């Protein structure tokens, strides 16, 4: 029984919790609110009361369960090994079953609809952007701020929708002369629509290493925004669509450059499709050959060091929660950075601390998300670096927003972009 | 349910955002870290931002007879923050400022919601240390640890919380704000109320400011681990170390059940058949540490340690301590409910206590692992069980009764550091007798005649 189907599935998980409160030491939400309901222990108790029948799932309960960035910091600090990530998913799915899609109507669209809105935005192009967002001048990339507060605050800085989506920019199969292997690239929404620069960097680096890249046109959103908010139905539809898209094109491996995408392919698809015999097998097959780009470059390729040009950057690295704690990938991006000539890696105070983005969390709780982000931004500023590298476009957005609002000069990039830059410089020499 | 006007008055003082009244929030203040304890939902949770607001809240509570349950981080292990009579939970977490570190007087002044580790981080910037270190340093508040008089690993050499509390600002049960003690080392003016309020578990007043003593951080430290095939030998080693005038900062013991559980969990390289493991750390000036380490090593050998490991650097030190740090987590993962006691005996009685606990475990057919602060006699017999098994829980309660009786018979005490709260209230007269309990009660009633503060804890109302 998966966490997506029933609250009963987490009974044992709940029982493991001894209420020691160790999770308080690391929870980014609790640090800001100092209310028991913010921390894992509080939400675990609520789930227990619901399961025991002492209280029922209310709309208010749903609101409380939305108070979590799913950063998994509590998992790591828990002496009893409580998998709070499972508990929160189960609780949210139960809330949706009982009370309908997240009480927060603020999430105006589900993941499925989101894609349609983006596609529309692409077609309408500058008109859409002109109405909703205003450009802010930035040395590094095109950013915009909300013109009107549509309920998510005007503080958040957005990257401009790209002129062309990544997937329309490239053919479905990008050939190289003597291919070492054929790799499927799951782009994810943010890289496809906003941060196409990350996508181009992934493709460039793979080609540089003689890898044929396949980008199935019919791939969809990873569905994580839906599944973490309890919208299991949409998440399942998306999982199936993605599996079929990549299965049809075939590949030796699949890479992602986004922590949600990695989590989806490695874990979530299989869990969502547990009861679907045929697709479960497919999900498991792909899970085994799915890799985050940094993991792939270090362990599978391994990427070539000759031809790396000098990149003079002082870099600090922010760990995306679902890459670090979620997939255990923390050394790899640093290893890549350290192998680039000219890059000086300077660690920030708590590189593994959540940036507060957490996908739709930042839309539902903009103030809280902003407060969490402020701490991150301050930690970055004290490193006196000129670049923050990270491994996830969602973190990049949040970090960029924080840096922009604080008004200091710092470029925010995906690790793979710096590697691509180095190859580029290398070629010129 | 509280009358509407009570809530209105509270909101007027604190603002709407600091008065929680919805079920979903209230339910999360119905428990603390105490295992197998019935939970109780409060009627309201308030979070003041200043001493004045605390005083105003107390006055409102007094006027409407609303019980006040002061709460820090809710990590205590005696049911100390559970609102057994409903009413109000007073969360001190927003009062979280470190007001001052005074390097000339070696003191710090903090608000009660400051987390212990935060104070230590600040003190460390000045090369200073606040020694009390309960297992919850990164989560527990200063107010909560002063109110429980928390101990920790460094008790043997550095004492416990009460040895570091120099002054307190208190809001009394009548809503008046008072100050006791201060920054002077010497102070005999009036009764020593700082001592009284320290460890009072929120039953006599509400702490709103704390002046603590800091000490220079020790320059060096050295850790070692000794394995024994017999608890008596381990006991003799403890006594011999002290007799040789070495006072280690920490001297911890793990019994056989703990060793086996830990070994299965983290593979720290402990022999599974060891009867006891002693972990010892000496600290201070480099030269002294060097001399004491050699001495302790010799004593451990003389007393029959079958294996001895000495940490060469911080990395090795962390490895040695892994076994101790993993004790509770390892036990907690074995079964869902972990009943952690803290009956304490004179240091010399540790072997007797360990053997008695073993006997009790067999008698009631329970899994009891014991580890703890051997150097100060404070053991943590830990019963691993499952709250859902009613029959087993009965045996657990009987075993706990007997553990307390044994500790008292050996000249010890019910609680070394976790406090009385609800959990140990019924045993008090065994330690103090009726007259002693009556004296506690008169003190309570002198300061809080209406049983407004943390009612249902430590002393029972007739
Ligand atoms: C895993 C674990 C390990 C532990 N290890 C140790 C250990 O090694 N040593 C040890 O001594 N304890 C230990 N404890 C117990 C606990 O952590 C300590 O008692 C801690 O100091 C309590 O702090 P708190 O902020 O959580 O207080 P709370 O639990 O919130 O409150 C404790 C008591 O203090 C009162 N109180 C809180 N704030 C105030 C205030 N401002 N004014 C008046 N009264 C107040 C409350 O009413 C309550 O009675 C451990 C607990 C756990 C769960
Ligand atoms: S740290 Fe783990 S066991 Fe402790 S309260 Fe949090 S979730 Fe529960
Ligand atoms: S996952 Fe992160 S935000 Fe959520 S409860 Fe755990 S520590 Fe807090």
TrEMBL record, chain A:
Keywords: 4Fe-4S, Electron transport, Iron, Iron-sulfur, Metal-binding, Repeat, Transport. It catalyses: glycolate + A = glyoxylate + AH2; (R)-lactate + A = pyruvate + AH2. Its cofactor is [4Fe-4S] cluster. Residues 8-37 form the 4Fe-4S ferredoxin-type domain. Binds 2 [4Fe-4S] clusters. Its EC number is 1.1.99.14. Pfam families: CCG (PF02754), Fer4_8 (PF13183). It is an enzyme of class 1 (oxidoreductase). GO terms for molecular function: 4 iron, 4 sulfur cluster binding; glycolate dehydrogenase activity; metal ion binding. It comes from the Bacteria. Transmembrane segments: none annotated. InterPro entries: 4Fe4S_Fe-S-bd (IPR017896), 4Fe4S_Fe_S_CS (IPR017900), Cys_rich_dom (IPR004017), Glc_ox_4Fe-4S (IPR012257), Helical_ferredxn (IPR009051). Component of a complex that catalyzes the oxidation of glycolate to glyoxylate. This is Glycolate oxidase iron-sulfur subunit. It comes from Desulfosporosinus hippei DSM 8344.
From TrEMBL, chain B:
Residues 38-217 form the FAD-binding PCMH-type domain. Transmembrane segments: none annotated. Its cofactor is FAD. Keywords: FAD, Flavoprotein, Oxidoreductase. It holds the Pfam family FAD_binding_4. One of its GO terms (molecular function) is FAD binding. Belongs to the FAD-binding oxidoreductase/transferase type 4 family. This is Glycolate oxidase.
């Amino acid at each position: 029984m998966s966490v997506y189907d029933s609250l009963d599935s987490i009974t044992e998980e709940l029982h493991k919790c001894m209420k020691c409160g160790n999770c308080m030491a690391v929870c980014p939400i609790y640090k800001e609110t100092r209310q028991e309901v913010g921390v894992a222990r509080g939400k675990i108790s609520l789930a227990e009361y619901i399961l025991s029948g002492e209280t029922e799932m209310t709309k208010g309960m749903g609101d409380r369960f939305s108070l979590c960035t799913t950063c998994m910091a509590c998992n790591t600090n828990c002496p009893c090994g409580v998998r709070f990530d499972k508990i929160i998913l189960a609780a949210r799915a139960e809330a949706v079953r009982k009370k309908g899609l997240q009480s927060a109507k603020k999430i105006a669209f589900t993941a499925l609809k989101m894609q349609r809105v983006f596609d529309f935005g692409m077609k309408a192009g500058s008109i859409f952007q002109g109405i909703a967002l205003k450009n802010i001048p930035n040395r590094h990339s095109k950013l915009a701020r909300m013109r009107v507060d549509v309920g998510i605050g005007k503080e958040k800085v957005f990257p401009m929708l790209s002129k062309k989506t990544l997937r329309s920019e490239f053919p479905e199969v990008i050939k190289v002369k003597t291919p070492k292997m054929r790799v499927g690239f799951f782009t994810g929404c943010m890289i496809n629509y906003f941060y196409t620069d990350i996508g181009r960097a992934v493709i460039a680096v793979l080609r540089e290493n003689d890898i044929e890249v396949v980008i199935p046109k019919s791939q969809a959103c990873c569905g994580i925004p839906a599944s973490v908010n309890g919208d299991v139905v949409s998440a399942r539809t998306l999982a199936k669509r993605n599996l079929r898209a990549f299965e049809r094109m075939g590949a030796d491996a699949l890479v992602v450059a986004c922590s949600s995408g990695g989590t989806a392919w490695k874990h979530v698809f299989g869990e969502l499709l547990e009861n679907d015999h045929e697709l479960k097998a497919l999900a498991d097959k792909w899970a085994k050959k799915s890799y985050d780009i940094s993991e792939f470059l270090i362990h599978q390729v391994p990427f070539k060091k000759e031809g790396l040009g000098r990149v003079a950057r002082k870099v600090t690295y922010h760990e995306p929660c679902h890459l670090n704690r979620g997939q255990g990938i923390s050394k790899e991006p640093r290893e890549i950075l350290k192998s680039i000539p000219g890059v000086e890696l300077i660690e920030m105070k708590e590189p593994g601390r959540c940036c507060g983005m957490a996908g739709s969390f930042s839309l539902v709780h903009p103030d809280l998300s902003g407060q969490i982000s402020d701490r991150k931004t301050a930690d970055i500023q004290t490193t006196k670096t000129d670049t923050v590298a990270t491994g996830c476009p969602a973190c990049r957005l949040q970090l960029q927003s924080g840096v922009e609002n604080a008004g200091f000069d710092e470029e925010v990039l995906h690790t793979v972009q710096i590697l691509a830059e180095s190859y580029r410089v290398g070629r010129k020499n | 349910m509280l009358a509407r006007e009570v809530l209105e008055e509270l909101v007027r003082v604190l603002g709407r955002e600091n008065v929680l009244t919805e079920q979903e929030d209230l339910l999360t203040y119905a428990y603390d870290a105490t295992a197998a304890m019935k939970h109780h939902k409060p009627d309201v949770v308030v979070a003041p931002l200043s001493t004045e607001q605390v005083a105003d809240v107390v006055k409102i509570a007094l006027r409407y007879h609303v019980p006040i349950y002061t709460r820090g981080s809710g990590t205590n292990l005696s049911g100390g923050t559970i609102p057994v009579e409903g009413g109000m939970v007073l969360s001190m977490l927003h009062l979280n400022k470190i007001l001052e570190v005074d390097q000339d007087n070696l003191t710090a002044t903090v608000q009660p919601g400051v987390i212990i580790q935060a104070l230590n981080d600040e003190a460390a910037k000045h090369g200073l240390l606040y020694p009390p270190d309960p297992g919850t340093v990164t989560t527990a508040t200063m107010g909560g640890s002063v109110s429980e008089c928390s101990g920790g690993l460094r008790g043997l050499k550095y004492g416990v919380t009460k040895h570091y509390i120099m002054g307190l600002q208190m809001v009394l049960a009548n809503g008046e704000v008072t100050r006791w003690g201060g920054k002077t080392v010497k102070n005999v003016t009036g009764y020593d109320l700082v001592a009284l309020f320290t460890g009072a578990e929120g039953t006599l007043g509400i702490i709103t400011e704390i002046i603590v003593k800091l000490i220079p951080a020790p320059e060096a430290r050295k850790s070692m681990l000794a394995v024994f095939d017999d608890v008596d030998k381990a006991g003799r080693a403890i006594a011999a170390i002290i007799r040789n005038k070495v006072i280690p900062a920490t001297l911890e013991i793990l019994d056989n059940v703990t060793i086996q559980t830990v070994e299965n969990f983290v593979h720290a390289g402990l022999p599974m058949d060891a009867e006891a493991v002693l972990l010892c750390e000496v600290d201070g000036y480099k030269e002294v540490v060097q001399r004491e380490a050699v001495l302790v090593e010799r004593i451990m050998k003389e007393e029959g340690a079958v294996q001895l490991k000495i940490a060469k650097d911080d990395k090795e030190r962390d490895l040695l301590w892994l076994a101790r740090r993993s004790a509770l987590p390892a036990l907690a993962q074995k079964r869902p409910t972990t009943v952690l006691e803290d009956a304490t005996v004179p240091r010399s009685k540790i072997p007797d206590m360990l053997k008695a606990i073993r006997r009790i475990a067999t008698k009631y057919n329970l899994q009891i692992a014991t580890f703890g602060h051997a150097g100060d006699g404070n053991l943590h017999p830990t019963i691993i069980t499952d709250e859902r098994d009613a029959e087993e829980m009965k045996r657990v309660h009987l075993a706990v009764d007997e553990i307390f009786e044994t500790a008292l018979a050996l000249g010890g005490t019910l609680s070394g550091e976790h406090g009385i709260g609800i959990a140990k209230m019924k045993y008090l007269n065994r330690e103090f007798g009726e007259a002693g309990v009556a004296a506690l009660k008169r003190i309570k009633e002198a300061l809080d005649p209406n049983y407004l503060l943390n009612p249902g804890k430590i002393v029972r109302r007739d």
